[in-house]
Amino acid sequence: MYNVLVVDDEPMIRKGLTKLLESGGFGLADIRTAENGVEALERIRERAPDFLFTDIRMSKMDGLALCGIVARDYPHVRIVIVTGYDDFAYARQGIACGVKEYLLKPITKKSIHEVVGRLLDAERRRERSIPSLAKSSAWIDAMEEAIWSLSEEGVAAGVAALFDELRGKELSTQQQATIVAELCELLARKLNARDVYPLDASFRKENVDSIETLRASLAAYASAAVDALRAKRKGKAKDPIEEAKKYIELHLSRDFSLEEVADMLGLNASYFSQLFKQSTGETFASYRIRRRMERAKRLLAEPRHRITDISYEVGYADHPHFTKTFKKLTGDTPKQYREKLGIDP
């Protein structure tokens, strides 16, 4: 599905062109409008369209000035100039801005179908021709080596090289962000396989609103990996699983969740869950229950503790639930366990 922005200072033309686009059966997802170049730029900065239809002669900012800015900052946007015969020679200056399509007024259904058909064909060809950079190992291998060797210069060179390559693809900011996220996920997997301080594989692309922001985010992501590895080699980095275990031991007497522990560690909950299972061979929930029951056994071995008090001490306000869980793991109820130890329940 493709998005469209129609820019014209004449309301009837905006309305008519919008209606033709909506009724043409092109499958366009969203058609927005603006009455001049300044307003159009505001719309584009909110969300860049796939196709831009713009008049030439408008107040505040004319169509050619708008085309120049769009061609520079949003190279993936395909531009169509809407013009009359009298202005066609002037409109041809848009070629310098990468404009390849023109609509002559009065606009007809046939001319719309021809122009949009060519736009859609070109867009589909471009999408098919975009290589899957995430499948290319060269960049990932270079970045992995730069991070492993703590080379900040290598990291900066890798970021620059990637964006030099992306610049020539005429991709939208979000398309580039998706590619960067895929690359970061594969990079994190390779680094974590080397036993680096666990690097979160999820590159956060939701708040990326420009290529500059995306580039800065990637640089920060890679620099964080360098810093974490440097700290670990100096013996200053804390193992997140050991920290989680300590947290569990300190809070066995109250209810707490996996999300709470992950947040304490500064890790994504899903990532932490996978990491915990991989490191301990147990799920977080199973480990927490086992440690509670082991503490319960130690307390049951001390006659001064009442069984009901012990259930609270290991995080169970519901005493029957504690009894059921204890028996499931040990084969005995707390009372039977004490009897086997020769302790009067």
Structure description:
This protein has 345 residues and is α/β, with parallel strands linked by helices. Helices cover 59% and strands 8% of the residues. The chain contains 16 helices and five strands. A five-stranded parallel sheet has the order 2-1-3-4-5, with helices on both faces. β1, α1 and β2 form a beta-alpha-beta unit. The radius of gyration is 31 Å and the shape is elongated. The model has no long low-confidence stretch (mean pLDDT 82).
What is the molecular shape?
Answer: elongated
**Strands side by side in the biggest sheet:** 2-1-3-4-5
> How many distinct beta strands?
5
Mean pLDDT: 82
Count of alpha/pi helices: 16
- Which band does the percent of strand residues land in? 5-15%
Largest sheet: 5 strands, parallel
- Order of secondary-structure elements: EHEHEHEHEHHHHHHHHHHHH
Cα gyration radius (Å): 31 Å
Poorly predicted runs are none
Brief account:
With 345 residues, this protein is an alpha/beta fold. 59% of the residues lie in helices and 8% in strands.
Fold blueprint:
Layout: E1 2-7, H1 11-22, E2 28-34, H2 37-46, E3 51-55, H3 63-73, E4 78-83, H4 88-91, E5 101-104, H5 109-129, H6 137-148, H7 152-167, H8 173-193, H9 211-233, H10 240-250, H11 258-265, H12 269-280, H13 284-300, H14 307-313, H15 319-330, H16 334-340
Parallel strand pairs: 1-2, 1-3, 3-4, 4-5
Helix pairs in contact: 2-3, 6-7, 6-8, 7-9, 8-9
List keywords for this structure.
elongated; 5-stranded parallel beta sheet; 345 residues; alpha/beta; 8% strand; 16 helices; 5 strands
